[in-house]
Specification:
The chain is α+β, with helices and mostly antiparallel strands. The protein contains four helices and six strands; from the N terminus they run αββββααββα. A four-stranded antiparallel β-sheet has the order 1-2-3-4, with helices on one face. Strands 5-6 form a two-stranded antiparallel sheet.
Amino acid sequence: LSPRDEWDGRSLRPLLVGEDVAWRDSIPIEYYYWRANTKRCSCCCPVEEGYPDGDCPGKATHANCWCSSGDDCYETEDDRNNFVALRKIDRESDLLYAKYEAGDQAIREINFTFPHFRELFRTDADPWCTVNTHEDAPVALLKSLDAELEQWRTCAGTACRADPRPPSREAPASHAVLKAQVVDVTRAAFAHYKRQAWGADELRPVSNVPHNWTQPALGVTLIVHV
């Protein structure tokens, strides 16, 4: 299946079947606030468990609510939760860089011109991303990451299939081990989805049952893998 010109990204198939292909050393990540996903755990637990039942639309079935324990009821979505991020691994760096901007994409374009918060994690030394090093980072590094992230954010179609900054050095040997681990996990996850939830939007990892966001199901997992 040849990709259409308007499709972003590249197929993972060459990596999964062991073909020797050149690959980029960074990937973009983005997320935008979605008003319909704003939920409160306080409305989902029954009164006998000590939670106010409120006026939740799905309190009878808990369909539209999240539930936790203790006094930790909160909204699970916020209009400050728009972010773009860059995960970068090459010979010189192992980083996760992200910036956030408040707003609602349904009302106005979120272009991250005026981010209210930034994060930079040195994921080689801090794999769980617990120490934000943005304030201490060199200005030149931040400018470089910003420029690369903006290239990814604004690219479209075939332009997104090429690395905007091709690697000039060979990757360290340790990256081959990481690549093999990613390939193995991806194959195992997809095989499990195929066996347990073929055609559904997703396979829930804890309950191990299919789940659909769309009606009829579009097979979102299949679309993502393409």
